[in-house]
């Protein structure tokens, strides 16, 4: 056999062996392949979560190769940089929404004119530690729903007759930083709202029962 399979699912040189220990770079390449495949619709969000966990804990090249063996060899190579950026352009049309189990890219470009936009990170699949959002938005409201561990930096955003409302979630000792969202560009006429997910009825009742003094 002339070569083994690399973490990207492509044939590597004759010196490679699936028993070789994987490096951090090998794991990162496999993660990129999986993330881009999910963005193409080849993997479900649950499959992506499962494979990402396996990739980050893989010890050998062979373990990584299994995770990408059923994906096209081109995934994560020449088109990776292009697919890494999501651009959305809308003018006077319906709302832009990313909710539920969506895959967060490295970068988003939002060019919106009088269209509401909502990015909900509550159940989002996060595979990077930073998301940069380049904003060119006029009118309406941009809403970012940030679960514990997601922080939003608005310092690089230019505001023109608009304002930012940042409602921070209660600090949790077990919530480590999982994603930093960097907002840059310009927001004119409207609002940017950053808020935590709304509590479910069960969570509200639990908090109320905990806060209620005994005997009441």
Blueprint of the fold:
Elements: H1 24-39, H2 45-57, H3 61-68, H4 80-83, E1 85-91, E2 96-98, E3 103-104, E4 107-113, E5 117-120, E6 125-126, E7 130-138, E8 141-145, E9 150-153, E10 157-166, E11 179-195, H5 201-211
Parallel strand pairs: 1-4, 2-5, 3-6, 4-7, 5-8, 7-11, 8-11, 9-11, 10-11
Helix pairs in contact: 1-2, 1-3
Summarize the structure.
This protein is 24% helix and 32% strand. The chain is an alpha/beta fold.
Features:
216 residues, alpha/beta, 2 domains, 9-stranded parallel sheet, 5 helices, disordered N terminus
Structural commentary:
The N terminus is likely disordered. It is built from five helices and eleven strands; from the N terminus they run H-H-H-H-E-E-E-E-E-E-E-E-E-E-E-H. 24% of the residues lie in helices and 32% in strands. The protein is an alpha/beta fold and 216 residues long. Strands 1, 2, 4, 5, 7, 8, 9, 10 and 11 form a nine-stranded parallel beta sheet that branches. Strands 3-6 form a two-stranded parallel sheet. The chain has two domains: 83 residues, no CATH class; 112 residues, no CATH class. The longest helix has 16 residues.
N-to-C series of helices and strands? HHHHEEEEEEEEEEEH
Percentage of residues in DSSP E strands: 25-35%
The residue ranges in which pLDDT falls below 50 over 5 or more consecutive positions are 1-5, 9-15, 74-82
Helix content class: 10-25%
Mean pLDDT: 81
The beta-strand count equals 11
> Would you tell me the structural class of the helices and strands?
alpha/beta
Q: Tell me the major beta sheet.
A: 9 strands, parallel
| Total count of helical runs of at least 4 residues | 5
Distance between the termini: 76 Å
């Amino acid at each position: 056999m002339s070569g083994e399979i690399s973490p990207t699912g492509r044939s590597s040189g004759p010196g490679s062996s699936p028993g070789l220990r994987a490096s951090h770079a090998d794991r990162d390449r496999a993660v990129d392949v999986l993330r881009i495949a999910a963005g193409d619709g080849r993997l479900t969000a649950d499959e992506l979560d499962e494979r990402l966990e396996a990739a980050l804990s893989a010890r050998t090249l062979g373990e990584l190769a299994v995770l990408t063996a059923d994906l096209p060899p081109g995934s994560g190579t020449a088109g990776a940089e292009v697919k890494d950026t999501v651009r959305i352009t809308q003018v006077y049309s319906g709302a832009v929404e990313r909710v539920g189990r969506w895959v967060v890219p490295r970068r988003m470009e939002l060019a919106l004119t009088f269209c509401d936009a909502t990015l909900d990170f509550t159940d989002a699949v996060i595979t990077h530690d930073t998301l940069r959002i380049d904003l060119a938005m006029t009118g309406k409201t941009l809403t970012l729903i940030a679960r514990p561990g997601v922080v939003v930096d608005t310092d690089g955003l230019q505001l023109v007759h608009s304002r930012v409302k940042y409602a921070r979630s209660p600090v949790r000792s077990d919530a480590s930083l999982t994603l930093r969202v960097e907002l840059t560009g310009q927001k004119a006429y409207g609002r940017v709202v950053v808020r935590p997910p709304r509590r479910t009825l069960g969570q509200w009742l639990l908090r109320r029962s905990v806060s209620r003094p005994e005997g009441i």
